[in-house]
Design a protein that fits this description.
The protein is of the alpha/beta class and 431 residues long. It has 20 helices and eleven strands. It folds into three domains: 220 residues, HUPs (Rossmann fold), CATH 3.40.50; 100 residues, Orthogonal Bundle (Tyrosyl-Transfer RNA Synthetase); 86 residues, RNA-binding S4 domain (Structural Genomics Hypothetical 15.5 Kd Protein In mrcA-pckA Intergenic Region, Chain A, Roll), CATH 3.10.290.10. The chain has a six-stranded mixed β-sheet with strand order 1-6-5-2-3-4, sandwiched between helices. Strands 7-11-10-8-9 form a five-stranded mixed β-sheet.
Length: 431
């Protein structure tokens, strides 16, 4: 059991403690407590924006506390308005329920790794779905002042924004989330809630409701909004959301995302997203700053986070694909590796949509965007800088796609990895 002061100091040292309630929180955490964090099902998978709160639950778990992951099967029907410019689109009950089930499975797999103190999964639809309006107004609404609610920054921004405003549905979200904290306190003696800084107003509402309804002293703490050194929001990429589900974002692409973290961010992200000690991270930085040393921070970050989310086998696959593309050793790729590349790792063209008797390799490369013109392809062929599955393509063979793209010459009877120049790749497949 890690004492409370040590735990909070560790979080502060990592830059993970943004707000906390109660001067005696450290003393409260000297004993095993039940700690919860909520996750609304806004999609069928968690994404990297959920990693920090997930890892916070994991850190409390490893410190000796009992973690609860609350999946918002009910609150997901409303949508949290906190710091959102516009009202969320409401999804059907069927869709929200399906998403909630998938999130529950993801959270269990992530937090229960190498731990005897398993996470408890709760769904707030268990106590909110059949809630009567009059009971809500009498038992919950009476404890909240409208004046205080509209003064909360997350609500105030919506009210003050011209032409927007906020619906009563979203306005009531803070009260509904407060009910979650009070219910978990009654049912499971939960006394601590963690969340992102955008949740502070909702957390405070829960603390107030616990004090009024349950006569219980509860606590909250938040993690900061994660931004990159350039001020942009973390997790936003040109290709879209980075999901934690391997079928939505492949482990290879996930690994590549972390490899691409800027030097200005990488050591801060090592503190946020890994369990490496702060002293170990400082050592990594010192070694990277040596002029004669090859920087390793990004590869360590990518390895640690990919291992946590996808496991060692998928990390090995991501490294294998990365090395194969860098060294032109496509023969080491396994069938599953090609499947990852087909999902999102490379530009992918299915040959069943192409009559290979009527088109040339040049046409495919130009149409795919890999080459700007047929002349560029011709020059590359003459330089010997086009390979298919590691084999050099001659100018003569480029006109005979039937020979180049035969089942016999494919990898696993289906795949062709085309390399154009030094760094450009295209994946072709029969299906």
């Amino acid at each position: 059991m890690v004492d409370g002061e040590q735990l909070l100091c560790s979080l502060e040292e990592r830059g993970l403690l943004y707000q906390k309630s109660g001067d005696d929180l450290a003393d409260h955490l000297d004993k095993p407590r039940t700690v919860y964090c909520g996750f609304d099902p806004t999609a069928d998978s968690l994404h990297i924006g959920h990693l920090i709160p997930l890892l916070m639950l994991k850190r409390f778990q490893e410190a000796g506390h009992r973690p609860i992951a609350l999946v918002g099967g009910a609150t997901g029907m409303i949508g949290d308005p906190s710091f959102k410019a516009n009202e969320r689109q409401l999804n059907s009950e069927e869709i929200v329920n399906e998403w909630a089930i998938r999130l529950e499975s993801q959270i269990k797999d992530l937090i229960n790794q190498d731990s005897e103190n398993e996470v408890t999964i709760e769904n707030n639809s268990n106590w909110l779905a059949d809630l009567k309006v009059l009971d809500f107004l009498r038992d919950v609404g009476k404890h909240f002042s409208i004046n205080n609610l509209i003064s909360k920054e997350s609500v105030k921004q919506r009210i003050d924004r011209d032409g927007e405003g906020i619906s009563f549905t979203e306005f009531a979200y803070s009260l509904v989330q407060a009910m979650d904290f009070a219910e978990l306190n009654r049912r499971m003696d939960c006394s601590v809630q963690v969340g992102g800084s955008d949740q502070w107003g909702n957390i405070v509402s829960g603390i107030d409701l616990n004090r009024r309804q349950n006569k219980s002293q509860c606590y909250g703490l938040t993690v900061p909004l994660i931004t990159k050194a350039d001020g942009t929001k973390f997790g936003k990429t040109e290709s879209g959301t980075i999901w934690l589900n391997a079928k939505k974002t492949s482990p290879y692409m996930f690994y590549q995302f972390w490899l691409g973290v800027a030097d200005e961010d990488v050591y801060r992200f090592l503190r946020f997203f890994t369990f490496l000690s702060v002293s170990a991270i400082s050592s990594i930085k010192e070694k990277d700053e040596l002029k004669n040393a090859k920087p390793v921070a990004q590869s360590i970050l990518a390895s640690e986070v990919t291992r946590f989310v996808h496991g060692q086998d998928q990390l090995d696959a991501a490294k294998r694909i990365t090395d194969a593309l860098f060294t032109d050793k496509s023969e080491v790729l396994q069938k599953e590796d090609f499947e990852q590349l087909a999902l999102d790792g490379l530009t992918h063209i299915t040959l069943q949509d192409i009559d290979i008797s009527e088109v040339t390799l040049s046409r495919i490369l130009v149409d795919s965007g890999l080459a700007k013109s047929g002349k560029e392809v011709k020059d590359a062929l003459l330089r010997g800088s086009i390979l298919i599955n590691g084999e050099l393509v001659s100018p003569e063979d480029s006109f005979n796609l039937g020979k180049l793209l035969s089942v016999e010459s494919s990898a696993y009877g289906n795949y062709f990895l085309v390399k154009f120049g030094k760094k450009k790749y295209l994946l072709l497949s029969f299906s």
